[in-house]
Amino acid sequence: MNGGSHSILPCAFALVLACSPLTFGQELSKGEKDTVFIGLLNVQPSVQESAKAKGHELELKRVAESLDTQFITALNATRVFQLVERKRMKELQVEQAFASVAVNPADKNAAQALKMAGAKYAFLPQIDGFEDRVDKQKFDDIDRVSMSRKLFLSVVVQVVDTTTGKLLPDSPSIQLNKAETMDMARPGQAMESDEVIVGLAKEMAGKLSQGVVQLLRPAKVLIVTGKQIMINRGSEAGFNKGDEVEIFATQEVKDEDTGETFNNEVPVGKARIVRGDVKQSFATLEGEDNGVNKGCVVRVSRPAHSPVGGPQAPTGELVPLQQPNAGTPVSPGSSDKPITFN
User: Is 249 exposed, middle or buried (0-12, 13-18, 19+ CB in 10 A)?
Assistant: First the structure.
């Protein structure tokens, strides 16, 4: 400083992209399973009325009952969360109160109630679409009937932060179709099967459980050994042999206007699942490695059964990839080829 004049030196700031799982809202625990509560499956009134009017009320009830239990089983099989037992429902009836309205976080009594016996998050599944269409063709000359049946089911899982009672801005939403046919059946022979309903519920439960796991606990790289990476998810979370996966480094970015924090994701590599079991997978890196390291987020980009050039995600699955983050800053990671932002 000389004669009251100031010398200002230019400063360069580099933000290192960290390989870290997404965090938002309430900070998820490290080194232990987070406890979650699964609310009873709800069916929208308009869906019930439509099914009743078309004579498919029983089919809707059957798929709802099956999905209610299948979702719990599928989520428990992922080994990611600790589930609150349904028998404690009486002390958890507050779910009805905050399923559609936010609770003032400053209200200590409300916040205490919404902690729900230690559950950090509540999953509230709801059927918002159902259709069971049956077309029959009679062949009077030979006394036979052919049947074509198409089932449609749409389910959304609202995720509630039990500390504040607020719904998270994004919810896993899945739409599925199933079909069955029967040719040249005798009149009076049972045609519509219960098997297709149970199959629809089971597939829906699996996709929903994968959706909420990706939302709260996305798969990540545990260790890199040469070209091999170990992933902390297996077949129960949708990682199967032959699947192509993409690996992302993440960085927190804050919106200065709103104060909201987002996660910027940059692809750093691709790999293919070569083996695994229900809780872990091993993949081989393919192509260029731009900084694949421990903690990087991993997502299936093309399932093994998908045709080349086909959809990059399971049909009908609308799982959010990025979530607002109000947690603590992500610690910078390291790799042979770190990505930097200037």
Answer: buried
